[in-house]
Design goal:
282 residues, Glucose Permease (Domain IIA), 21 strands, 41% strand
């Protein structure tokens, strides 16, 4: 009996390192950058040490994780209208939910005061109805569940001086208007606009405010849009490659002169386009 007992104790002692290791298995490491984003920012979420594909959800929107060297990485947008506060980010690995709190801080944007002719600010009933139809048409574009077609870093579609920054709060004829949800790039009529990444042309239209407009779907909830174009060089449903010329700068729609307005939606959130081209995704 004593011999059997000694053998049993030896087995237990031999297994202790395995039991300790199993009980202290490291959870995947989750890195948020920036840790405290503001409205209009893009946050990257990196998951290290995961042994299976990673899924996520933030503010009821799907977060797309892609394998990146020894980790999984996602980009998610903080919409321009997001109120400061704490929001939940759920990350799923093999059915296990790991939750993280995302603290969104207040971000101050400049105010731009403009004086324009009355007929450029106040719309007729016919034009109001047209604008409403066009807004509904554009809102139906995103966010849709489409496969990733973007590859590597996003590039600048048109280099030039930024004449109106993202997030500027506009007051026109003393009337507050919606904040500027893109950037305006100084450019001459007819200059080329290039695709910032691989994508599909999902909307081509001539709209009241934005004029000749083009929206590209890059997949996984990332969209880029280009307004006031003089000419659009792609067709609906056409696939485009990064760097391909997709249109020419113009002054169509409600524009006071030739320039490129371009914007970004990420999982439906309005984010700063310059943040997108600063990201290192390769």
């Amino acid at each position: 009996m004593t011999k059997v007992k000694n053998i049993f104790q030896s087995i237990v002692i031999a297994c202790l390192p395995l039991l300790v290791h199993a009980g202290t298995a490291r959870q995947p490491e989750i890195i948020l950058n920036p840790k405290t984003p503001g409205p209009g920012d893009i946050m990257t979420v990196t998951v290290k040490g995961a042994d299976a594909p990673v899924e996520g959800k933030f503010r009821d929107k799907k977060v797309y994780f892609n394998p990146s060297k020894d980790s999984f990485r996602a980009v998610l947008g903080i919409d321009l209208s997001t109120e400061p506060g704490t929001y939940n980010l759920d990350i799923s690995i093999n059915g296990t939910i790991l939750s993280r709190s995302v603290k969104v801080i207040k971000k101050a944007y400049p105010v731009q005061r403009l004086t324009l002719p009355k007929d450029m600010v106040e719309l007729s009933p016919e034009n109001e109805a047209r604008v409403e139809r066009e807004q509904l048409k554009m809102a139906a574009v995103w966010p849709n569940e489409t496969e990733r077609v973007w590859a590597g870093d996003f590039i600048n579609p048109r280099k030039g001086k930024i004449v109106t920054k993202f997030g500027v709060r506009r007051v026109i004829n003393k009337i507050p208007k919606s904040p500027h949800s893109g950037v305006d790039v100084e450019a001459e009529e007819g200059e080329e606009v290039r695709a910032p990444n691989n994508g599909v042309a999902v909307l081509i239209d001539d709209q009241f405010f934005s004029g000749k407009s083009l929206i590209l779907d890059h997949g996984q909830g990332i969209y880029t849009m280009f307004f006031h174009l003089s000419k659009i060089l792609v067709t609906p449903g056409q696939q485009v490659k990064k760097g391909e010329v997709i249109g020419l700068v113009g002054s169509t729609g409600r524009a006071t002169g030739a320039h490129l307005h371009w914007g970004v939606r990420m999982q439906g959130a309005r984010v700063d386009p310059l943040e997108l081209i600063r990201l290192r995704l390769e």
